[in-house]
Design a protein that fits this description.
Length: about 900
Amino acid sequence: MSAIPPDELGTLSDSRTDPSVPFRLLADSVEQLVWMTLPDGQLDYANRAWVEHTGLAAIRKDRGAWKDAIHPEDRPAFDAAWQRATEHNESWEMTLRLRHRDGGQDWFVVRMQPIADRAGRTVCWFGICAENRTAPEQENTINRVDPTAAPTGQHNEAIVSSQEQSGSVAAQEHHATEVETLRDLHSLSHRLKQSSDLKSVARETLETLIKMLGADMGSLQYYDSEAKGLRYLAHQGFDSATFDEQQVIRAGEHWLCSRALESYQRVIVEDFQQDLHAFAHRPTAERLGYRAAQSTPLIARSGKVVGMVTTCFREPRPLRKRELRLIDLAVQRIAYLMEWTTASDRLRDSEQRFHTLADNMSQLAWMADENGWIFWYNQRWYDYTGTTLEQMRGWGWKQVHHPEHVDAVVRKIRRCFQTGENWEDTFPLRGKDGLYRWFLSRAVPIRDEDGRVIRWFGTNTDVTELRRIERELRRAREAAEQANRAKSDFLANMSHEIRSPMTAILGYIDLLTITSDADREMVETIRRNSQFLLELINDILDLSKIEAGKLELDSVEFHPRTLVEDVVSLMQVRAAEHQLKLGARFDGPIPNRIQGDPVRIRQILINLVGNAIKFTDVGEVGIAVSFDGEESQLRFDVHDTGIGMRPDQLERLFQPFEQADSSITRQFGGSGLGLAISQRLAELLGARITVTSELGKGSQFSLIIPLGNGAVMELVSGPPADAPRQSDDLDAEVQAGRQPDQPADPLDRGRQSQWRSEVDPTLPLNARVLVVDDRRDIRFLVQHVLRNAGAETVLCEDGAQAVATVEQSLADGQPFDLVVMDMQMPIVDGITAVGILRDQGYDRPVIALTANAMNADREKCLQSGFTDYLSKPIDVRQLLAVLHRHVAADGDQR
């Protein structure tokens, strides 16, 4: 280090970060020339006095130029003495001349002393030059240094024979004290810089301070935040019989230290026998054997007291400013060191906890510098890979990567290292057994206060088992999806297979009613049970479709009042059969129009009303409609005076195939699917169904539909003026191709309460119709109906026959006016056949006839080329009405 220019002088706070600062501050304050060299003689430091005297400020650049300040005549003796001293690592002394910056020269006594580390190795040389003002007058009596003389560790009388004869004794003593103080302080700073043991640091600091002050005893304590007091780190000079080193000094218990602790200032007592303010401490001083003392608090950079240093004197003793300055310099250093040691201990504890956690975590972990150079791995990494840090340091980790993945991994992680983005990747790593396992790897940047990346922390989590589970789950999901598709196909086929014979049964029942004198009651019994069987099938298909997630909701505007009246009209016949009153009540105004799916809402209400009728023997069933404007909710309450339910029965009410109890099933029948379907439909609509019931008194089921906050709605109390007539609604649906009594989608049941049409199905059907179905019963049923209506019919068993027959009719000039074709047939199905017909130019109506109720068949049929759609079981009146309408429409076009 070079001398410190005025603008570079450190403040007292610098001593907390640099252990050499106390030495430099003191060295710059003395008159002597102080300097230090490295073991090889290169100048390492010169104080302010050296620079001001010699003017050699250039020593910063040329560290060997400091010897140029020595007078040329004295240089050989100095070099010889220096050489021998460095060989023996011993202190030495001589008198010589040093050049002044103005060109003159002055005599100085030069002392050099080696400074050693704890191992005894010389780390630097400490030198001090004190001006010898009497030397010029006694120049002839001064013995020059004999180059062959051996230097000693004491003041060398042979080298400086006139030293005792020159100068005052006081000056010499002052000079020696200054030298000794500088040497001790520098030696202490050097040792503290190397030490990390707080107790040894405290002991050496206290010893040095006592020596520099000439004190008789002293102590150094640290502040224990848990005990809220001072504990001894080091003490010297006290009688162990009277000194309690385990004592905890708290505020108010030890006058001297307490005053310093509370005031954050040094407390000095020059004589405890005379100082009345220190009377409280006099017994302690007498017991421990001292008359004067000072206590200085150790204040850390944070402003907190971290300890106390006390020096005591057996005799009354005032402290000079220079001594107080020495105390301050030592105190600042030990305060910093105590704070640093505490922080270091916490850091070591933190690092220990980190390494313990890192080495015991399940993941492989690593750290890299800001450029991605990995310098640390946890123990798990080494345990898994069987490698060492030397092998893995830097980019050595590529050795354990799979060759097919390593290049892509390197590219991606390099990009993240460059951009500072979080990194994540998945790849296999080779274990020490030679096998690869998959790892999910992540790395995050660690940034400093300015946001710069200073290092990276990464982990590798073994996901081999997770990937295996994911593969199994994927296979299981695919299997489940396949099973679900198989179930859907099965249900579709079951629908076809069951609906087709049901079509024949119901159709021929209709024919019996029309063409024979069979017992009407018997025929109606067959029809009623057939309808019940069909409803059961439809319930199962409904639930399956909802659970398969294949239900699509519509969102259209409709009149809720008209919908309720329609439900009441539809269920009126069933209520009359049970001799029950059925009606609707509107409690206050309700919205004229709302947005939603009227088909699903109507189906829910039909289910709720149907249940209410089923379980009510006497009394009434009603629907109460109300609107809550604050919550924007439309509420439908279906109440009855039926048998009611117990609380435990309510808990399983909405479970599929569940009823209140087995006796209910035996008495009232039913599959237990209606409420389950209604509940699921309500959830899909964003609505909810609630129920209250009392055994023996009846039940109330409430459908509550949120309409959305903020929606502007027109409220009406009476029938909506702009609502279409019920028959108009139904006619519009027939025009759209929907069949009111049995729509294409089983969930569309309840869309119409009654079938109406402007077309009279009893009118003659003057048309030539091709009927295509693979079931003989269906073909003959449709043929019988159409012949009785006046139509000419031709029958085909599959799509291939149908295509050939239509081609022949076109060739003969007698094309069919209309084709009725089943969807599912062997050889060539309906969709394929109609596509061929349209490609061949057949542009007349083709009506789809199918029992498949699980898919969106109507849209599929229309997109494939069919003109319209009829669902099995076939209603004779529906069939005739649709055919009449299309024959008439086609005739008008031609």
